[in-house]
Structure formats: structure tokens, C-alpha cells
Amino acid sequence: MHHDIDSAFTCGNIALKNAKLLKDSSLLAESHMLLGYGLETKGNYKAALQNFIIATDLFKKINIKSKLAQCYTAMGIVYWYQGFSNKAIDYYKKNIAICLEINDENGLAASYGNIAIIFDERKDLDNALLYYNKALLIFEKNKREMQTAACLDNMSLIYKQQKEYKTALDFNLKSYKLREHIGDTLGMLASMENLGGIFISLNKYDDAIAISDRVVTIASRLGSKEDIKFAYINLKDAYEAKKDYKSANIILNKLMEIKDSLRNIENANQIAELETKFKTKEKETELSEIKLMQELREVENTEKLKKKNYSIIILSLVGVFILLLAFILLKRFKEKKLVAEELSVKNSAIETQKTIIDKAYLELSEKNKDITDSIKYAQRIQEAIFPSDSNFANLLPQSFVFFKPKDIVSGDFYWVEKENNDSVYIAVVDCTGHGVPGAFMSIVGFNLLNKAIHENKCDTPADILHQVNIDLTETLKQTLEASSVKDGMEISLCKWNRKENELIFAGANTIVYHVNDKQINIIKGNKHPIGGFYGEQLQPFQNTKINIKPNDCVYLFSDGYADQFGGEKGKKYKYKQLEEFLLSNSNKPIMEQRKLLSDEFENWRGNLEQVDDVCVIGIKF
Predict the structure, then answer these.
(1) Is 480 in a helix, a strand, or coil?
(2) Looking at 466-510, which runs of residues are DSSP E strands?
(3) Residues 3-24: pLDDT tens digits?
């Protein structure tokens, strides 16, 4: 793959050089678009966007609307990779406007599908269904069977999230039959994987395990690691639901062994700055072009006047200079013939370059799809470690989770585990960093928490944190001499004895809030985090007992909410403001508290970028 991308770059640069030499705007725009796709594949989003913007400007000037629409889609995908979904939608809508104008129905349906994916990620399921239906109508009308099957499968996932399981099964079955009809083996695997997820939602765990084992067998034969991963996720969820934690842990370890290649994500702020600079430069270029045209007209008028005077002289001396005129005309004829021959050779070279570019463009489009699928699978892997909504609601009926990652994957995660019929463990964990590095740490943290309870038989929150600290230090090979590298995590961990209504808390560089009788109490954990040496040995953690009464509320959280910049002055939200907000709303129903907490965060952030992952758990007793 790397060799093919380098070849595409070589072709793109050769085409760009020839286009500049020949002053061919169409070839120049195609070359910049090809280079943009290559840079996007390598993860160099800033340079990719720069080339797409240049191509967009050129296609506008030469009025090639079909290519302009493709540029808008490519720019939308770059912004989506960076987490700017609103910006991505803006460019998808520009593509839609052009597709409607030039009657490109398939391009229109593709943009509808891209917008539906964003609404699905935002959990705006109604709008996601609306756009999937728009895409489905077009694909069915144009008999695009592969796209129709993919659309039906995605819609089944929406209905599953809406708990309309019968409709989800119907759409999944239609998708599978259509893919079987056209011989789309990988598509059939995707339908089977989604069917496993639906069986889990219907509590048909044995059916989910059977279909997922079948996917693993077929995908292993085909060498499709992405499908194996998704099947492992379903197997893990099914075994956990059956309380077969030994099998679930085996599957989880297999899941972690399958590695996806993720591109490095550059600073997204540079992309926004680049677009602003380019638009400014574009206006300056237009002004320069106007001035240049004026100068050219003046030169042209001067040349016309000279030619007129020259013609008068020629006419006056026609008898004397007739032989000279014939010589001049013959010379000009030969020059034009020579130029025509050179242009014919160059046009042939251009046609050859265009053929190479079209082939490379098709290959890069296919690779773009593969990379997009890899990113989505990486997100699914991390989501696999989170407790299912049904399991969380069953263990903590009066509770909410407000979870908002900064990037596609997160360094924060939440964890709940049942010890026996009387006790439940709850934790909010903030790992070092966010995005891909934080996501790797979150999987390590999840495994160590489960290991502390099920293998090391730790009971109290303090014992669990101490064991996780020991295991993480061994896992990351941290020593006293190398303690300058503070890879680790901050954890708020509670154990709730439901029978005695007793709550025990231990924290690694964290606090929790306890609201009782219209007052908020700040319960502090130890000041050192998990991971790294502080002193000559790993420091222990202490338990704190919290006396719980009916209608009391306890809140666990990471630092992402309080650290968010926003408001009129662009300052941090801070913990004091968070305390006051939670206290003022603690008497309201628990799910209403979550909505208010989400609205407060978005209103405070406004148009500013989210600075960190956010995770808040609220529990009413």
C-alpha cells in the first residue's frame, strides 16, 4: 500500500509540473486533487486540505461542477476526521447543491449517507433515519444493490438503538439476502455481525454467540481482521451478560491482540487557520489579476497602434517591400506549423498523464474507504469495554452517564461491576492524554480493574486502587529511576452496599461530590494518581465511608468538564461553578439532571474547541 501511495504522489507531481508548463487549468486542478487524496491517506490533513482548496478554486474558474462537487466531499471528510462534524456537514451540503443542479443522483445519495453517519454519531437517530431513507430511495431507484444493502444494514442499527428490535431484524434480513444475492461476502459478514448485536439486545445470548463464532470462522478464512474484531466485541458482550466472565476475559484479550493502524491526527486548528489564510490570499490574487488585465489591455492597445502605423508604411512602400513581406509571411507560416506539431506532441503526453491520474484516483478512493472503516472499527473496540446501557441501568437504576470524548476515541472511561447480590463497584477513570494514546491506556485500565476484583480478590476501593497501581507499574515497566514519565490514570472508585445502603470511596488524585440536605460535601481522595513513583515506593490509598440517606446524590467525574474553556470571556468552567450547578439541580429527576448538564456544557463551550474528554456519573439513592 505504501508503494502505491508513493507512486500516486510521483504521478501527481509529474502531472502538476506538466500542467504548470502547459498552463492547463483542468490538468492543474486534477493534479492538486490527486495530491490531496494521497496526503489525506497518509494523515497529513493540513497539506491535503491546502491542495483541495486550490483544486476547488480552479474548478470554479473553469466551471467543472462534477469535480467541484467531489472536492467538497473530500474537504468534508477531512473535517469529519478532525472532529468538526458541523463543518463537514456544510461541505456535504455544498456537494448536494451541485449534485441537484447537474442531476447526479448517486453523488447526492452518497452525501445523504455521509450526513446520516454524523447524525448517528451524535445520537440524533431521527435525522439519521431521515437521511438514510433519502439515500435508500435513490439507490433502490438506480438499482445500486451494494449501496442499497449497506444502507439497509445501517438503518437496522438505528432501529436497534431505538429498541425497535422487530424492525431492526427485518432490515438486517433484507440487507443479508441482498448481499447474498450479489455475492458480497464481506457485506454478508457485516450483516451477520449486526445481527449478533441485535440478538444481545433481545437477550438471546446463545444465538449471539453462535452467529459471532460463525463470523470469526469465515472472517479468519478470508483474512478480514476488522470483521473478527467486531465479532469478538459481540462475543465479549454476550459472555458478560451470561456472567461467564472467564470466557469474556479470554475474548477481550484476543480483541486486544488485533491491532488496527491509525493515522496520526495533526493539529486541527492549523487547518481552520489555513483555510482563512487561503481565502485572504484568494482575494489578493483576484485584485492582482484585475490589475494585470488592465496593464495587458494598455499593452494590447499600444501594440494595435504600432501595427496600424506599420500597415500604413507597408501599404505606402508595397512595391519596394513586397519581397520582404512574402518572406515574413512564409517565415510566420513555418513557425505556426512548428508550434502546431509541438502542441500535438504535448497533447498526447497530457492524455497519457490523465489516464494515469484517473487510475491512481480510483485506487486512492478505495484506500480512503479502507482507512475510514479502520477508524470506525477502532471506535467500536473502545466502546466494547464500556458497560451496556441495560447492564448499567439494571445495577444503578437511578443514575445517569454524561460521556463526551474530545476525539473519536477517548482517554476517559466509566466502569461498573457487580461483586455479589449486595455490592456494586462504580468508577470514573481519566487516563493520561486523550484520543488514540488515551484509548490504549483506557483498555489497560479496564483490564486491571477487572483483574483486581476477579483474580486478586480485592474487596475495598483502596485495595483495588493499590493493586491497579502495582499492576500498571509492572505493565508499563515504571521504576523509581524512570518515574519522570508519568503514564497513568486518575480514578474515582466507589463501592455501594445496596443492602445496608453504605458507600465507600477511594480516589487517586480525584474528588467526588455528595449532596445531602441541600448541601454539597466535597469528599477528597489521595493526592497521588495511579502510575509513577512518589517517594521511594508506591503510595497506598485510603477508604472514606459516606453515610447515604434517601434522595442523596453522589457525583463522580473527570477533570474535562471543569477545565473546558468558554463563556463570554473564554475562561475555564472551574470546579466551584460545577459544584453550584450540581447542587442547584440535585432535587430534579436523574435523567433531567443529565440533560441540563449536557446543555450547560454546550452553552458554556459555544464555538470553542472541546479541550479534553468529559465523563460525569450521577447517582441518586
Answers:
(1) coil
(2) 489-497, 502-508
(3) 355 666 677 778 788 878 888 8
Among candidate residues 354, 326, 506, the one with its CA nearest the CA of residue 429: 506
**What is the band of 498 on the pLDDT scale with cuts at 50, 70, 90?**
confident
Domain locations along the chain: 387-620
Per-residue model confidence as pLDDT tens digits over 51-77: 999 999 999 999 999 899 989 988 998
Which one, of 438, 444, 384, lies nearest residue 614 by Cα?
Answer: 438
SS3 string of 170-234? Answer: HHHHHHHHHHHHHCCHHHHHHHHHHHHHHHHHCCCHHHHHHHHHHHHHHHHHHCCHHHHHHHHHH
Grid cell for residue 409:
476515541
CA 237 to chain centre: 24
Residues paired with residue 4 on neighbouring β-strands, in sequence order:
none
The rounded distance, in Å, linking the Cα atoms of 511 and 324 is 99
Q: Which residues are CB-contacts of 446 (< 8 A; sequence separation ≥ 6)?
A: 385, 413, 415
C-alpha cell at 385: 469495554
- Output the nine-digit C-alpha cell for 335: 513557425
* Per-residue pLDDT at 536: 54
Q: Specify the residue for cell string 429527576.
A: 589
- Which of these, 470, 532, 544, 475, lies nearest to 507 by C-alpha position? 544
Q: Which of 384, 374, 373 is CA-nearest to residue 254?
A: 384
pLDDT in tens, 196-206: 999 999 999 99
Place of cell 444475492: 181
The CATH number assigned to the domain with range 387-620 reads: 3.60.40.10
